[in-house]
């Protein structure tokens, strides 16, 4: 089992920044990738960013150049630095970790006001 706890969400004005954190615990060995999805109101959950065990990264086109995913292996934390936030970035952000199955965190709300 892998347990994921997100933090760092909140309310921010358009153009502002937030940093989300995802702390992993439990059976974290052999995690192949971790990342972030988001669910906007009335929309399906969509990929935001992912980082693999060899540090390859991938981003949704809508966040490229604004968001950066990184990780601290010693602290077992994955971060999502979000700059230049837009109202359309509003949603619940979920951390995930991929092993034999995909594990999810409980989500953290990000609200960007115009």
Brief account:
The chain is mainly β and 114 residues long. Helix content is 0%, strand content 57%.
What does this structure look like?
The protein has 114 residues and is an all-beta fold. It is built from no helices and eleven strands. Strand 9 and strand 10 form a beta hairpin. The N and C termini lie far apart (40 Å).
Keywords:
single chain; 114 residues; four-stranded antiparallel sheet
What is the terminal-to-terminal distance? Answer: 40 Å
Order of helices and strands: EEEEEEEEEEE
The helix tally amounts to 0
Evaluate the radius of gyration. 13 Å
Summarize the SSE layout with pairings.
Blueprint: E1 2-7, E2 10-13, E3 18-26, E4 33-39, E5 46-52, E6 57-59, E7 67-72, E8 77-82, E9 91-98, E10 102-104, E11 108-113
Parallel strand pairs: 2-11
Antiparallel strand pairs: 1-3, 3-8, 4-5, 4-9, 5-6, 7-8, 9-10, 9-11
